[in-house]
Structures
1.
Amino acid sequence: RGGQSKVLPRRLVVDMREFMSCLPAVLHQQGFDLVPTTLEVGDYVLSPEMCVERKALPDLHASLGSGRLYHQAESMSKHYKTPILLIEFDADKAFTLQSVHDIGDDIDPRNIMSKLVLLLLHFPKLRLVWSRSLHATADIFSALKSNQDEPDPAAAALVGVPVGPDGMPLSGSETVVNQAAQELLRKLPGVNDANYRSLMSAVGSLRELADTPVERLEVIMGSAKNARMLREFLDAPCPRA
């Protein structure tokens, strides 16, 4: 009808862990409708086909080094038509990952730019987006969401959740989750997106995890290397002053 402006899509499904950062507050100020939930895949779901994994620079370096970003890119590429890795810089710092003088002619697996190139080569669907600041990210989300359908929060929450033989999500009984313990678990050496759920199902608490022998950890985690990394960390003595 004449005189009426088109309503722009403004809903974002946001992973609960993102609310520890400042971006959700900025998005709210910009008029986005934020729907918090626990996402197995991605940090922000912009549409039924578009998912964003957001990385500030410290997290980018850490997740590239640990291999966590590989698993995240793999999950997004599997479940979404348009998976996006958004690298967010601080507004008061240089808008660059490294000096041009540090970029060589060949692929160097120790170089962050080389790591990103290898990631994109491995996952051709993955789109890389650079953001200068939190407010720039809000503008980017607005542009990406134009002409897109609004995301369904319930559907987004089920993406990547394991299902049982009956096709029902296995997380159906997980109505209460110790979010702080889960976050701590996911930061431990050897723990990644592919095995943290198995650990949560097999051990009842972090205390029980600390008493779990490495042989059982190998079975639970499906990797002797990851099990050893975790066990060695748990057995390492605390430094004394």
2.
Amino acid sequence: RPPGRSPPMEPVTVLLATGAVAVYAAHRAEKMSDRLRRGPTTLPDMLSEKYIDDDSMLVVIAVHIRRAQLAPQLGGKKLRMCVKYGPAGESSKCDTDEVYVPAPSKSAARAFVGRKPSTAETVAADFSQTCLFLAHRQHESIIRLRLCQAGVGRRACAKAEVGITPPWSKIDRHDLSLFGTGDGGAKVLGSLDVSIEMRAVAKGNLQRCLGMLGAEENEGAILTNFTEISHGTLVEPGLGEDLGAGAGGDVLQGCAVTQAGGRGAGGAARAA
């Protein structure tokens, strides 16, 4: 054969390779057909589905990623949190924006020896974002969280899991331990402040709220910076409500929600 040219494949090798591709293609086609039969399976798909009217109620899972306290060796890096809901291979995913974690002082770095660090020894990563998922009855009630370093795909450097528990009306707040991956799987690399809630929301109301909040589609979920889904009523323009001088555009009436999770006095917020 000419120099530099690869040897020809044996006929049996060609058949095996062709068979493997055919099986893979058939498996993909079967999964796609199953998804088409089930209809929209993610929140972005459900919100964009024209055959589902605005009054239809959607059950939404909100995962509020607040602040992480991390071991000193994770300082000086850009990190993001990958949130997964659903079984492996079919889960909906949502990545927070990347945040820069400041480098620790030299004394704090020397003090950490693999145990769960105290607050004084940690570096902070303030995510302050919420991932919204469409709830599925057949999915396992577990949220998987992966702390990933920027620029290395989805390879995680720390992970945690938390269950979703009823009732829907409450907000479950957790202080989760973040465990290392790979050879460092037994090591605690920090903690994560996260809350989870489930709400039934009308499709049209949710779309308008997310529009006012500047939410964005993020893979199979919606990513936004607001901290809590609160009970309230969207008031359409021109209905005659006395909302004060200068009020215009879509207005969200309800209870004000503080950063700490408490409710303030009721009022109305005008979309910017």
3.
Amino acid sequence: GELSSLLQSHAPRSQPSKQALSSKVASGGAITEIQENYIVVNGRGFSRYGAQTALLGSYGSEQHLTAWIPPHLSFTKQPEDAWLADNTIFGPAVWIETSQESRFDVDLSITAIPAVEIVAGLDLNSSDSRKFYLKNIRLASMFKLVQALNTPEFEANRTYMQEQMDRPRIVTAVWILIEGDEAHSSFCSGGSLALKVLKKDVMSVSGHDCDMKTWSFSPDSVMAYESAKIKFNKD
């Protein structure tokens, strides 16, 4: 069968605490809540569950007999380049306060991608390696993704999703952890992106008309993601 639509879902949009809200106002940052299974950015929830196994375009099943918000997913399949072609953009960057770093339960200094590996013309002396931020990469159009998934080339993928997977979902946005300073966080803001799967669990990012090198990331650097439920036409 063919996909009919993708339904977006988010983690809970809970109210930030007074302490978190004060931190946001003082710093200009936008992470207002960090929980074990989700974060809240600008009032919108993004899942952390299984984030370090997720790439943009990865898909998997909701875990059996669960009703979690956000859904608990088991990612079993990697994305295809054709699903991402001419359909990826950078979103905002959000800053991680020093007081928030331990809430992620990972060593950020080991997990983060150094900004000097991403931003063209940046050297170690011009980047503050003591700061961390999350950079959003997302699909620009759900409609284009559905069109790509419905091509004859991916009939086997659709059959697998429909017949072998339980409530399949696909990753439509990721938050990548980067080590660097605020002055260089808006790289490639006016250019175009190209994402490709290099090998298992590694994705390359290149740009056109922007001040960015070609770089790569793995799910280890994904701190949170957004997913959409895959819906099929009824036969």
4.
Amino acid sequence: NEREYLEDSLCERAKKHQLRVQYLYDSGALSLLPLTDIHENWAKTLSVVSEFTERDWSDALHTAGIQNANPSLPIEGILLTLRLGTNSKESAEIIVSIERLLDQIEKDSICRYLVVLGIDDDEVGGIVAADLIRRLELRAGPHRQLQSVKTITNPPNTRDQSFSLCSIWNRMAIVAWENGADWVVLLGDDIEIECSYHYRAFYRSFLDIADRLNVPFGFGCPWWNDTAFPGFPSFPCVGKAHFKIFGGLIPER
């Protein structure tokens, strides 16, 4: 199954890495390797102390670089909908809270994620929204943990109609899934993440569910352990299999 394949491949890769590092250490090559222009200089140096050519080492380093920079790991979708504050001080505090939240998410060093922001229609074109989006986009990139940032505009809140938070979450989740998220989690700027391995825990939960129930990866709904409400699934994590079955986060029926 997928979990066994992942664990076996990681184990095999670690063994090969250990053997190769030991070989380089025994041959004295490690002390000769420069710390600049690694791709070019390492291939040349390693070809001198081994039976492989400079071209062989260059190709191997290039392949290893691509594999390490683009790990085949799931993408987590972080859904954030919020008001951006009624004054500059409050807005600044909210932006700091969001960046702190993302710092806590990134403590799990293998976590790859995207962010979907739901910003109210009367704030989406403002200076604060632009500043927040700019800050998040600066964190994003193909070789960074944050892969991308998407924004949706929440519909206006009128006196005649109640604010439909569930429909907003539904739209945000669909945007996340359609842009590559393997699961989504609903969070807010007032959340503190205390678990430094949350991504691995969700990943393992989905692998275990798939193995135990013989269902596709992403089926099921693990959740955060909310210390404010122990045992209550305040912040569920919903896999992409749910989207494929129901077409959204919240089924019509």
